[in-house]
Amino acid sequence: MNKEPILKIEDLCVDFKTRTGSVRVLHHINLSVKAGESIGIVGESGCGKSMTALATMQLIPTPPGLISEGSVLLKGDDLLKLNEIQMRDVRGNEISMIFQEPMTSLNPVFKIGMQISENIIRHQGKTKKEAQELSVAMMRAVKIPGAARLIKRYPHELSGGMRQRVMIAMALSCQPSVLIADEPTTALDVTVQAQIFDLLRDVQQDMGTAIILITHDMGVIAENTQRVVVMYAGHKFEEGPVDEIIHHPKHPYTRGLIRCTPHLKKNMEHEREELSEIPGIVPDLSRLDGLCPFRPRCSEKRRQCDEQMPQEIQTGDGHFVCCWAAGEDQ
Amino acid sequence: MADDVKMNEIAAPSRRFLEAWYMFASNKAALLGLGLGILIAGVTIFGPMIYPTDPFEMVGAPMSPPGEELLLGTDFLGRDILAGIVYGARTTVLVGFAATFFTLVIGILIGVLAGFYGGWVENLLMRVTEFFQVLPALLLAMVLVALFSPSLYTIIFAIGVVSWTPVARLTRAEFLKIKEREFVMAERAIGATNWSIMWKVMLPNAAPPLIVAATLGVGVAILFEAALSFLGLGDPNAFSWGYMIGASRDFIWDTWWAVTFPGLAIFVTVLSISLIGDGLNDALNPKLRLVK
Amino acid sequence: MSESPLLEVENLCTYFRLSKSHPFGRSRTVFAVDDVSFRVSRGTTFGIVGESGCGKSTTAMSILRLIKPTSGSVRFDGNDVLKLDPKPLRRLRSRMQLIFQDPYSSLNPRATAGNIVAAPLKTHNIGSRQQHHERVSELFSRVGLRPEQQTAFPHQFSGGQRQRISIARALATDPELIVCDEPVSALDVAIQAQVLNLLIRLQRELNLTYLFISHDMGVIQHMCDEVVVLYLGKIVEQADRNSLFSHPLHPYTWSLLSAVPSIYSDADSLKQRVKLKGDPPSPIDPPPGCRFAQRCPFADTSKHCYSKMPLLRIIKGQHKVACHRVSEEGVAPQDIHTI
Predict the structure, then answer these.
(1) For chain A, which has fewer Cβ within 10 Å, the N-terminal or C-terminal residue?
(2) ipTM attached to this prediction
(3) How many domains does chain B fold into?
């Protein structure tokens, strides 16, 4: 575990311009991932987890978006200093991304074989024939049955699970060092979800890819990552090893997030207990006041919360939390 | 339970309207159209009071050019062109709006029934629509007017009959889209009748594109009326811009003003309506709205 | 069990005929709901669970006659829903209501929240205008909205609040049965708990009966007293919550449960996870035999898995299963075989 991180996000801030002024959607995010490691980013929608991924890939529409501070270091090089043409070499080559809805991320008018090989041709300068062969090999690697036949199909002719496999094959075709998976299984059935995560785990073992998994499902996080980052309203609230976060969460928001889902249990008590809920909804990002954004919903609010934004503190080995309440326990 | 964070944002229910007006007002062309529209409305309503010359009366020497005796001159019979434009506005605007209303009634009725019921109802109604679509519109309108002796009513009727098809198709398309949305199913689940779902629930949701189509339809109807009058199929008792152009067309080289000014009036009116329609389209189409 | 059940569904079938791909093509049929029977007792929550395309929503829509079923019968408090004339059907609809999955599309965007909730009252001519107003205010506070929010339009609410409006609308006519079609799957995780707790509280207060449809095993386990598992339009297993989740009999239920990622799982349970191959096949003209056979790790030609449709039979108590491989004593194949 003493390897250098392959991707390091430092102090990343993203602002969006709106009619009423500038809104900060990411507040000084720090994040790193090592080769062969899987980290998870969890949070409610609008917490900035997808924004972090898009900022890393520099896929934020500019304007209105703007990366105003920070750096994204890939193997030590700052991606934010690259221009658009250089960035194109990184995307799909060094860092790849797979999305929630594979149907909308595949181009419906091209055969899938062509879509995979296009990526290979673009980044690796292979000939059409070599790329075609590599595509079939890639599709075999992601366990698509009858790959040689399937490259001549169109995206709509495949099932949801197969489409997501094609997306993964495409994303991995250039052996990227980092794979960002943004809710890759939310649109899929559980049995298919299990297959996809198995596949990602196998691929990671073979290629040593670092995976950033973005999801709202704590169960998925628990089973598929080693480290977790909890985000809320553009802030990083907690980061730590997955067992620590799930069994000993320090931030009230993390605790709420874990307890508010009815997790499947093998042995049940007979009486239904009430789920603990996090009251209210995520705040409007344009109305934040520089203090802890979770304050209005927090059950453990105290005096300091209304005075100052808490600093990130370390509470254990690799466990960081940003909360006054957690600080007091120390 | 207290979702207060979001509730602060709840504004007065008129916000949707205000937002649309904001979009409309930020469109300079649309504002120009609206200005011209108000001017034309003013002429239509108050014109004859301010300028009470009878357009049918011969008030000056025939073919006197603009500025000599009268502001816009006279035609070959010595009738005042300005008076013609002022009075003609009434006919033109009346026909434009009445014909559009008639168009909407037929088009929406057919479109709603076809889109809501589907199946053989839709098939039948859409075949009828296509039948009317392939007939040459102006020719059909001429035949209809000639058949029932020219009067304002027959002209309105004829324009309505030849121009309802796009409205029907648009309404049907909107209904097909809205039918897929769950709130329609929700209305059925609470036991609402088909009739109330069609008219009270779905039609208001189909309104924005229909409003735009109706606005642009007024322009088309005005052009139709002008064309019919030009061809001598206008109401002989009503003075209209199309009639003025038609009547003076043999003298176009001698009295250019008798043709040009009514033509400009038509042009400006239709332009104003088109600009308003375009502005409304942008304002009512939420996809074009600025991101908040 | 002495009381008559509120809802009785018997041999419900809903098939869709697909148009032929060419004039000489053979006609294809989607067996969306195929011979489904169950009873729902008053005051309980009855769950229908399954993967996408298993026919769970079609079942609900068929029961409410929002989709026309092909055959079978649905009795609601003694009335045969499928045979009613339009007028009595509309009256009956005030007693059975529906909550949709997507609170963004299930509310009319051009009506105010107050009017949306009052619509069932107006449709059924219950009470005066003044009474509507009072009832709507009462419903708003019951579901956790402020009565003064009635004048706002749906787009001014958050997803959770919209679902509350949807619930208030369903409650307006004092129904006995509420069909909840994936009521929380479109909501954010933290909001899901709020809505689920609200549903449980309302059930206690108003003695409601829920037909609860979901693909989420955790939510089903939390909410339901009795559960049926659907696979390609067929019931494969039916049991009360306890026996289903502690001892699933059908290999499909078993693999479905084991596929759910859980915060309680450890390295061992990950290794033991059953991995179903492939995607759920399409319900268009399924092959004869057990519909799950293609994906089943225990399918066996000698047990007729590929040739004979297994019938739903009672194993013990109220636990029913449709599988050739489950023994009469309730020994499931996964109990004795390892894969």
Answers:
(1) N
(2) 0.84
(3) 1
